[in-house]
């Protein structure tokens, strides 16, 4: 084999090796790729920072329970997180920010269509994100709950 | 913006690592190929950034070798200490660009306006003959204006190619007097090799590429390496055209070991000039060693350069 041919093979191997080394270092240091679409979590700690910073209520009306009945988060294509709080008495509340999951019962509250009957939405800015509370609770209790939200320690 | 900047930093660092690896593993490379590789390493990062801004699609996510978005988040998560360190590195690099690369261009422009240059018919004939040889061997553009040659009336030792629209080889009277005919031809051939390789228009283009990456430390290193490699590439070309690498080596040593008598001023300025001269001498010795070892290496095939570029472009394209 001629010297230029050996050089070309070595250069190709070096390029491929460098690609694999970069790929390996990236995945090792930063972890695997975030999955696309909505994901279910078991605890607030499951929500990655890229999805947003979840909040937890310091006040909860007796009708709702904690921890959340459902935790949903998404990084791609649009970041967002939502927590569903519910009780056997029938009242419901969704706290979240960013994009909403498609099976959200009051999804229309977040666009121009307006909330379904019996639901209403309140929002407030917390740092970089606008947090929305979509609920069937009476307005006063909902306001108190929204005012009492604080960053989760996770 | 942060993501775009970080992408440029990562592209530059990977391109530099790749080039050094290619030289280490696939070498020895001809000086011409090495200079061309370094130039592409400097050009590809801003080109890819522009294409990305224009909406060029990237590879599928699993092929992303470095995920720029994730690295940006990781950098922002480091807090003020990490961000200050990175900011300091980028600011320092920008300062080096101003001091080492922008200010000298300004000083050179001022100095050039003061010099007076005259025509020399012997040198002009010699230049024409060399241009013809460069064109016949396909190493220089076959059309377009041939460079002129002028003698600068000064005792200092210098030679160079000036001008963009009308390229002119200028050589000092002092240097020409010190060289024998063979060395003089080799020196002219070296300066004409700069013209054959694109001249000052190409230098301006490369300088612009460096300027748009003024904060990128890898671009700084690539640019400095490329300037040295470009000189070596012109040495290689001149040696091939004249067939006398030893004459060029001798001319280089004569030109760069001569103290610059025009340097006056205080002790600090003289010391600064002496340090610069010794640095230049060390660089010249390296060039001479390379020149004598390589002799007149074969001109690299454009296919080799194209293949290398495809490899590097693919590698950098995977950084999204």
Can you offer a commentary on this structure?
The complex is a heterodimer of chains A (154) and B (320). Chain A is α+β, with helices and mostly antiparallel strands. Chain A has 2 domains: 1-32; 39-151, Phosphorylase Kinase, domain 1. Chain A has 2 helices and 8 strands. Chain A has helices at 3-30, 139-147; strands spanning 39-41, 55-57, 70-74, 80-86, 92-98, 120-126, 129-135, 149-151. The N and C termini of chain A lie far apart (61 Å). Chain B has helices spanning 2-26, 31-53, 68-77, 79-114, 121-136, 173-178, 181-196, 199-212, 217-242, 245-257, 267-294, 302-317, and strands at residues 117-118, 148-152, 159-162, 168-172. In chain B, a hairpin with a 5-residue loop joins strand 3 and strand 4 (168-172). Chain B has a 4-stranded mixed β-sheet. In chain B, 72% of the residues lie in helices and 5% in strands. Chain B has one domain. In chain B, helix 2 runs antiparallel to helix 9. Chain B is globular and about 65 Å long. With 320 residues, chain B is mainly alpha-helical.
């Amino acid at each position: 084999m001629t010297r230029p041919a050996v050089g070309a093979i070595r250069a190709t191997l070096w390029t491929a090796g460098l690609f694999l080394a970069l790929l390996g270092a990236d995945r090792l240091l930063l972890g695997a790729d975030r999955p696309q679409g909505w994901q279910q979590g078991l605890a607030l700690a499951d929500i990655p920072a890229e999805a947003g910073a979840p909040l937890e209520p310091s006040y909860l009306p007796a009708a709702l329970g904690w921890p959340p009945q459902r935790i949903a988060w998404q990084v791609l294509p649009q970041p967002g997180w939502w927590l569903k709080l519910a009780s056997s008495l029938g009242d419901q509340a969704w706290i979240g920010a960013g994009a909403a999951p498609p099976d959200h019962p009051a999804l229309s509250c977040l666009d121009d269509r307006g909330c379904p009957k019996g639901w209403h939405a309140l929002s407030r800015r917390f740092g970089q994100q606008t947090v929305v509370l979509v609920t069937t609770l009476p307005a006063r209790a909902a306001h108190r709950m929204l005012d009492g939200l604080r960053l989760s320690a996770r | 913006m942060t993501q775009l900047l970080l992408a440029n930093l990562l592209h530059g660092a990977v391109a530099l690592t790749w080039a050094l690896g290619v030289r280490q593993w696939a070498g020895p490379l001809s000086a011409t190929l090495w200079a061309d590789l370094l130039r592409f390493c400097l050009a590809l990062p801003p080109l890819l950034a522009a294409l990305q801004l224009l909406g060029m699609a990237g590879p599928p996510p699993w092929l992303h070798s470095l995920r720029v978005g994730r690295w940006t988040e990781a950098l922002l998560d480091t807090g003020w200490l990490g961000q200050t360190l990175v900011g300091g590195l980028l600011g320092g690099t920008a300062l080096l660009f101003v001091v080492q690369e922008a200010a000298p261009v300004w000083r050179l422009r001022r100095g050039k306006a003061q010099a007076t240059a005259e025509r020399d018919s012997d040198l002009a004939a010699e230049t024409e003959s060399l241009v013809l040889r460069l064109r016949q061997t396909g190493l220089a553009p076959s059309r377009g204006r041939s460079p002129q040659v002028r003698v600068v009336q000064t005792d200092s030792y210098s030679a160079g190619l000036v001008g963009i629209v009308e390229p002119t080889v200028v050589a000092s009277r002092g240097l020409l007097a010190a060289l024998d005919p063979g060395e003089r031809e080799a020196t002219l051939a070296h300066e004409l090799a700069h013209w054959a390789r694109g001249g000052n228009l190409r230098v301006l283009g490369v300088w612009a590429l460096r300027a748009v990456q003024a904060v990128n430390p890898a671009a700084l290193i690539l640019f400095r390496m490329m300037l040295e490699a470009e000189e070596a590439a012109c040495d290689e070309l001149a040696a091939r055209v004249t067939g006398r690498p030893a004459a060029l080596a001798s001319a280089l040593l004569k030109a760069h070991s001569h103290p610059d008598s025009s340097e006056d001023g205080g002790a600090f300025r003289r010391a600064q000039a002496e340090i610069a001269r010794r640095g230049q001498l060390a660089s010249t010795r390296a060039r001479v060693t390379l020149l004598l070892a390589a002799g007149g290496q074969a001109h690299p095939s454009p296919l080799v350069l194209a293949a290398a570029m495809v490899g590097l472009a693919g590698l950098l394209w995977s950084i999204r």
